[in-house]
Amino acid sequence: MVFELFKNEQHVCLMFSDLADEGAGEVVQSNQFLIVQDGNGILLDPGGVMTYNELYIAMSKYFSPKKLKYIFASHADPDIIASLPRWLTGSETKLLISALWSRFVPHFCPRGKAEGRIIAVPDQGTLLPFGSTAFQILPAHFLHSEGNLQFYDPVSRILFSGDMGASILPCDRVAPVTDFAQHLPFMHSFHTRYMVSNKVCRYWVNMVRAIDPEWIVPQHGAPLKGSLVIGQFLDWIESLSCGVDLMTQEMYTPPLGMNVSL
Prior knowledge:
By secondary structure, the chain is α/β, with parallel strands linked by helices. 23% of the residues lie in helices and 24% in strands. It is globular, with a radius of gyration of 18 Å.
């Protein structure tokens, strides 16, 4: 399924939402994103090996994958960049990723394949000139990865937020959220477990309010659009206890019995 998030004569933003076979609940739903600006292409969080073939075919209708200029990875989880070796083979693209993860990425690739093709983004983020505009690569540390980045497109006013704002939904329910209260149960457990602490959530909320995006589009689940829904989400995440806030000594106790079937 392809969602056209934004389009004008020079600029298009696309979301691909159901490319992996997610039957039987064994694979978490994930979104991939393509931005084309002035004939240049950048792929955001391209996904694992299960998404590669379908994503290559789907994006070919809008932009030649062989002409990709960059791939952006919000962090280094396998559902983000496990397909990287195939993209490096199929194009001359370079990877933008946190400097913290830049030396780990070659472990995904055959020897030498990533050499000279990884751009290590510093902790404070950076501006990325791209055609007639410049994207903002933003710090989002510990949300959930210690080297986490997000991607803001000032043309479409879309914040591609990685795991922040994620919801666990079937592929056929990833249309933009219109009722935040109804959507919240699909977000709550994910954020309490994967986001590291309320402290960093509050720092992030302050940054996002200053940017004032029209969209927050996560890597899993449904996009958030418009000031009402985004405002409700920011108010909620700003006050959420999560991650280490919820840890207790009891959670660090050696197991005394068999808890899984082997």
